[in-house]
Protein: L-xylulose reductase
Organism: Piliocolobus tephrosceles
Amino acid sequence: MELGLAGRRVLVTGAGKGIGRGTVQALHAAGARVVAVSRTQADLDSLVRECPGIEPVCVDLGDWEATERALGSVGPVDLLVNNAAVALLQPFLEVTKDAFDRSFEVNLRAVIQVSQIVARGLIARGAPGAIVNISSQCSQRAVTNHSVYCSTKGALDMLTKVMALELGPHKIRVNAVNPTVVMTPMGQANWSDPYKAKTMLDRIPLGKFAEVEHVVDAILFLLSDRSGMTTGSTLPVEGGFWAN
């Protein structure tokens, strides 16, 4: 299926590792011009070596002022993938203010800020666009020790719908992708314990966690004009977890 992404300028946050890195690699291979945003310079350096021609931007999206300085003059962007996130797991009774603040700053507030920058540019140019927010199966199902993480992703799903409602008249589509556990460094760190993993796998009809490519394929589809009548959706990539 031809996705028509060649020549499009795409901004990807959380580009240094996991889903974000896989998305940058796939977009680069498809001929897109990619702005890769990460807080880790070493990850960006290695990514530039893998994907010559991408534009690296090193910034901590949890810092509003630094993000404005780094991306406020990023120039015309056609497509956006809001992938950056943190997963700070704590039992509910042990949730700290720092974990709460950091989680919402990166997982939700940064999505608002970066999306505003991109959407304002699209509207000023009178250009159509697409935004994909990387949410989670945890947005709609409770998972032990994930009270803050689940809350950020539930909020992100609703933000996606409101963005779709308000940006639709400007021909900007907004959708979310909701993966199960993905075998990224973050996924491996949080789900490497066999007993813990089994409790989740037992709830997934397909009986396995996702690979990065499964999520990247969904992202590319939602960025492309092949999904031109899809907006405000939450696309599960979770092996049937929500059906259980």
The longest helix spans residues 97-125. Residues 22 and 159 are 24 Å apart (CA to CA).
